[in-house]
Amino acid sequence: MKFPQHRGNAASILDNLKAKKSDDLPWQSGKVFAYIFDAGDDTLDLVHDAYGLFLTENGLDPTSFPSLLELEKEVVGMALNLTQAPDSAGGSFTSGGTESILLAIKTARDFARANKPEITEPELVLPETAHAAFFKACSYFDVKPIVVPIDPKTFRAVPEAMAAAITENSIMMVGSTPSYAHGVIDPIRELASIAEEKGILFHVDACVGGFVLPFAKKLGYDIPDFDFSIPGVTSISMDIHKYGYAAKGASLVLHRDAAIKKYQIFSCASWSGYTVINPTILSSKSGGPIAAAWAAINHLGEEGYCEIVDKKMQASKKLQDGIAKIEGIYVLGEPDACMFSIAAEDFDIFPIAEKMKTKGWYIQPQLAVANSPENIHFSINGANTPHVDALLVDLEACVKDVRANQKPFELPLELTDDIMALLENLTPEIFDEVVKLLGSDGGDIPEHMEEVNVILNQMSTKAREEILKEFINRLYAPV
Ligand SMILES: *Cc1c(COP(=O)(O)O)cnc(C)c1O
Predict the structure, then answer these.
(1) What would the pLDDT profile of 119-147 be if each residue is shown by its tens digit?
(2) What element of type H or E holds 304?
(3) What's the gap in Å between 325 CA and the centre of ligand 1?
(4) Quick check: helix, strand or coil at residue 217?
């Protein structure tokens, strides 16, 4: 694309930008069950204004912008209060759950380097339901993920199996509250006590649950303890840009012992420019996300969050009860919060997501991995709660229709071991052949995602990863 030669008119630039949204998920409908976290127009307007107010200020240097330092200290302080942290605790504001998790693992690695120098090949013990961000952290920081099977019925981590996976190289164990995929809470008390006994760190991933569970507990829902009130819990990640209702770019990594945060910080005085001391991954960063997060928390308060959480929990229960009555589908495990996923008993589930999309609903497909069958996922928001009955009607009709009329989807190629080996060592040439077989040119978003998902679902995780990397690399080809 040619670089613009002349100045553009601001109004038409904005019109252009608005027009570009036309194919995006229409989240304002209340019929989208992923990606968007919306607490209503009041909060959204405030978050927008607060973000704008600090758009230009730079969090790079807290001495130049003490306002941002103060906002961060207050947001971290409020989160520590919510998670029952001791006075010794500390934390940082980050750009998202992934950054919070990357930092928790980097901190654990560097803490081990300083305190257990005999460990040369550090390991992270995690249940197979832990978020992809832990695998990313392991890949970025050269830590070996030791993946432990979960209970295939409850989808919870199994304490005995997790304990058995600990070796002299283990630096940290992980539990989720809840796991994103199935919405179930791992047995944190048991896991943390194992970690403590073995002398390793324990991270609670409350990215999606951090702004739900404390309020659900206050409301009297049956929520197990998950926070710093459990002695072995050494760090927690929680996203303010999910159920905290801040603007995206807002999460927290919290440490029981602020002293350990030192291992999180990067400091560089060895170059010729301004001194760089970064507690988190970014260096220059807008003050917008922290101001928006501070505003959302103060606007809603415990009262506001409780009100929304109650609605979400009830809607989630009602949806699950309704789904239990639909023949052919079932809820995976026993979800503890306001998200869950459903699988099919005797047909391919992915066409349900596609069919529901034609009726305006967005539900997220999730591929089969280890003990978790292929499924579709719902994260419930306040905006979804008025649409529960309508959703159940459409879902029941879709399931009936798909179940009665589904022809087994014929794979265009048989995934023999030889072909799988080729896919796992994918070259651009093999990718070209695969997409030709699928009747696509490989450069666009496929029209029939259900077929793509059915095919991916039958591949090894390694083959999926290689194919998707090649696909995304081409999808972002510049114009
Ligand atoms: C969303 C999520 C993450 C990752 O957070 P991002 O903000 O998308 O980077 C990690 N863990 C859990 C449980 C999550 O739900």
Answers:
(1) 999 999 999 999 999 999 999 999 999 99
(2) helix 288-324
(3) 31
(4) helix
Q: How does DSSP assign 335-387, residue by residue?
A: --SSEEEEEESSS-SHHHHHHHHHTT-B-EEE--BTTBPSEEEEE--GGGGGG
CA–centroid distance, residue 242 to ligand 1 (Å): 9
99 Cα nearest atom in ligand 1 = 9
- What distance in Å separates the CA atoms of residue 77 and residue 73, rounded to the nearest whole number? 6
The residue-averaged pLDDT of 61-78 equals 97
Nearest CA to ligand 1 atom 8: 97
Between the CA of 243 and the centroid of ligand 1 the distance, in Å, is: 11
Tell which atom from ligand 1 comes closest to the C-alpha of 97: 5
Best residue among 128, 135, 180 to mutate for probing ligand 1, ranked by most atoms within 8 Å of CB? 180
**Distance, CA 338 to ligand 1 centroid (Å)?**
15
The dihedral formed by the CA atoms of 116, 121, 122 and 126, expressed in degrees to the nearest 10: -150
What average pLDDT does the segment 270-283 reach?
A: 95
Tell me the pLDDT of the chain averaged across its residues: 94
pLDDT top residue among 386 and 435? 386
Q: Give the pLDDT score at 109.
A: 98
Q: Which residues contact 187 (CB under 8 A, 6 or more apart)?
A: 156, 157, 159, 175, 224
**CA-to-CA separations, 134 to 176, 244, 346, in angstroms, rounded:** 11, 22, 33
* Ligand 1, atom nearest to 176 Cα: 13
- Supply the pLDDT for residue 153: 96
Whether residue 266 has pLDDT greater than 90: yes
**Residue 442 CB neighbour total at 10 angstroms:** 17
Dist. CA 30–CA 239, nearest whole Å: 21
36 CA distance to ligand 1 centroid (A)? 13
Q: Which residues sit with their C-beta closer than 6 Å to ligand 1? A: 96-98, 101, 131, 133, 176, 180, 205, 207-208, 239, 251
Mean pLDDT value across residues 89-103: 98
Residue 364 pairs in a beta bridge with 377
Cα–Cα distance for residue pair 52/41, rounded to 1 Å:
16
Q: Measured in angstroms, how far is the CA atom of residue 95 from the centroid of ligand 1?
A: 11
Residues of the chain with pLDDT > 90: what percent?
83
